[in-house]
Amino acid sequence: MPDIAYVNGTFGDLADAVISIEDRGFQFADGVYEVIVAHERRPFLLDDHLARLEQSADGIDLPLGGIVGDLPSIINEGIRRCGYTDITIYVQITRGVASREHAYPSDMTPSIVLTFKRKPVSDSSLRKNGVELTTTTDIRWSLCSIKSIALLANVMIKNDARKRGFYDAIVLSEENDVLETSCANLFAVCDGVLRTPPADGRILHGMTRGFILDVARKERIPHEERAISLDALIAAEEAFITSTSIDILPVKCVDGHKIGTGVPGSTTRRLLSHFPASVLAEEQTPCANPQSP
Ligand code: PLP
Q1: What CATH number does the domain containing 62 carry?
Q2: Where among 94, 118, 142 does a domain terminate?
Q3: Is the pLDDT of residue 126 over 70?
Q4: Does the beta carbon of 148 lie inside 6 Å of ligand 1?
Q5: Active-site positions?
Q6: Which end is more exposed in the chain, N or C (fewer Cβ atoms within 10 Å of the end residue's Cβ)?
Q7: Cβ–Cβ under 8 Å, residues 206 and 243
């Protein structure tokens, strides 16, 4: 079964999908996106993803009209056509096609692209052993709550970390607080309290982050959205990163400093147990790298 794409109203094989060179997404990264996972063919946190897509589009003055209302049925049709059980669904909306000028016409028709791919099975050894992170200064733009397709800074951060032998890098604020990694949110357990940096525009308010905070509320796990200094992270009992593609990955060490005992802690494992069954089943299965969020 080939991976499939939806481009402006038409489904087809991903390999055959085309978009104009004059699309502003290609020329200016002028667009927004979401990555959604379907577990056993059911999209996880779909309403939340669609709400964030609307907020992101609003944030770049991209009117969506009725597009978001149409997306659930397009997504269901894509799930039906691709035939996979666990699916990574990529949704990208750009401002559309126009002659290349920074200022855009007021009457543009957005380009809508979705892709449907088999969700890669996560590397269970990362979940079991945790990941090694480094730290970096913030070279991103200042509107990090917008899920923009302009990801060059994030790409550079991740690749620089990889070249230096780390899984990813944590972006530090000017005050030396930890914000998030190139493509995941960050949590720590500090003095028994689950803590994550506030969604104050310097991080993306991740859907997985929101899910974890909901679980913490329901399970009465003490938690707070509060700044975490680099020193507090290094002294934490546990730390983990979250995103749609990786769910939860424990952090083993940061710049060589072991976090807690260096193995996934009880809060991390407890939170993981609340994810859909197919995420937990991956624990049993070895394998490949997750797709980029
Ligand atoms: N932070 C950044 C910069 C991201 O790119 C992502 C995912 O793409 C996240 C956090 C996690 O967000 P979510 O849980 O919605 O996948």
Answers
A1: 3.30.470.10
A2: 118
A3: yes
A4: no
A5: 147
A6: N
A7: yes
